[in-house]
Structure formats: C-alpha cells, structure tokens
Amino acid sequence: MKKSEIRQTIIGVIGGLITFVITLLLKMPIPLLIALPVGVYIGLYLAGKPQLKIGSIKLKEANGEEMKQLMTDAFDDIQVLESGSKISYDDEIKNLSEYLYQSGISIFEHLQENPSKIPLARRFINYYLETASSLISKYDKLHKSRVKGESILKAREDVINGLSILTNSFDKQFEHLMQGEIMDISTDVKVLTQTVKMEEGNV
Predict the structure, then answer these.
(1) CA–CA dist 52, 37 (Å, integer)
(2) Which pairs with CB-CB distance under 8 Å and at least 24 residues apart come from 178-182?
(3) What is the enclosing helix (H) or strand (E) of 54?
(4) Which long-range contacts (CB under 8 A, 24 or more apart) does 10-16 make?
(5) Could you give the CA distance from residue 188 to residue 71 in angstroms, rounded to a whole number?
(6) How many whole angstroms separate alpha carbon 114 and alpha carbon 178?
(7) CA 170, CA 128: separation in Å to the nearest integer?
(8) What 8-state DSSP symbol labels residue 184?
(9) Could you tell me if 125 and 76 are in contact, meaning their C-beta atoms sit under 8 angstroms apart?
C-alpha cells in the first residue's frame, strides 16, 4: 500500500471512530450508529485521495480495469515526456521531447473526452508512447552517469533518430483518433452544400 493510501486510511479510520463515539454518546439508533461512521470513513478516504495531474490536465477515471490501466500507463509516460521537455543540457532532445509531450497531451485529452476510443490507442500507449518515455529516461540516466566517449555520442544520435520517428507516429495516431470528427465536418459541409443548392433552385 502506498504512503498516500495509508494516510487516507488512517484519516478515514480516525474520522469514523470519532463519529462512532459521538453517535454513541448521543444514543442514536443502531442503524445510524453503524451507517454514520462508515459514511464518514468513506467520505474522508475519498476526499484525501490525491488528484493526479500533468500541468492542468487531470487523470480521469476510465471504465474497465484494462482501460484504467492503459490511461494510467499513458499518464505516467507523458510525465516522462514532460520532464524531457525541460532538459537543459541538450536542446535537440529537449525540442523533440517537447513536441512529443504536446502531441501526447492532445491525444490523452482526446481519449479522456472520448473513452470509447481508448481501445483504438492500445498499441500506441503500450508501444509508441512507452518507447518515447523509455528513450528519454535511458538517455537522461546516461547523461547523469557522466559517461564520455563515442558510445554516448552514438546513443545520443540513436535517441534523436528514435524520437524523430516517433513524432510522425504520434501525429498519425492523433489523426487516426480524429477521423470521426474529420468525417463529421466533411458530412456537415456536404449537407450544407446540398441544402444551399436546393434552396437556390426553389428561388
């Protein structure tokens, strides 16, 4: 159990016990004696639950265990992209990380607003997004280890090539997810064109 969850549980238990003592002293009916402390415990536990955020973007609950896990994994990887976008020792990797971070945020927001599309992004989250996160993390560790020589230069070149390829993959994924909206616009314009022609024909 994580420290935050332990703290939530302790706060909930203390609140429940205090409520139980109060209801006992007030000689409330047995149903209330049980229900009120339990309700207080649940309320305090949920109120103390930390809200996961990346900047101003919050991680919302998704339906289904697999969908929740996918969105949580995506959230974690995007946080790594955010840290990569703040790298100060390598402008090229920083800029690529920033691009991927912004693209990732757009995809993440879209999936939260359209949870039915989460399954469409399974491959993207489990491979492309995770690979981007992994490349940035590994390069950052290499840099902090202060390794010198041709090996680190080769690793840097490989990371830049990998992140460059991924920018295209991120763009294609977002375009794929937005196909429904793109088709809606096309349909709206077609209907508008037909409507205007019909009305002009009736004039």
Answers:
(1) 28
(2) 178/110
(3) strand 53-54
(4) 11/44, 11/45, 11/48, 12/40, 12/41, 12/42, 12/44, 12/45, 12/48, 13/41, 15/40, 15/41, 15/43, 15/44, 16/40, 16/41, 16/44
(5) 32
(6) 10
(7) 8
(8) H
(9) no
Q: Is the pLDDT of residue 163 over 80?
A: yes
pLDDT digits 0-9 by tens, 82-102: 999 999 899 999 999 999 999
Are the CB atoms for 104 and 84 separated by under 8 Å?
A: no
Per-residue pLDDT reduced to its tens digit, 166-200 = 999 999 999 988 887 777 788 888 888 888 888 77
N residues, the chain: 203
pLDDT at 45 exceeding the cut of 60: no
**pTM listed for this prediction:** 0.64
Closest listed residue to residue 143, CA positions, set 92, 79, 74, 82: 92
Q: What is the pLDDT of residues 92-132, one digit of tens each?
A: 999 999 999 999 999 998 988 888 888 888 999 999 999 99
CA distance linking residue 48 with residue 46, whole number of Å:
5
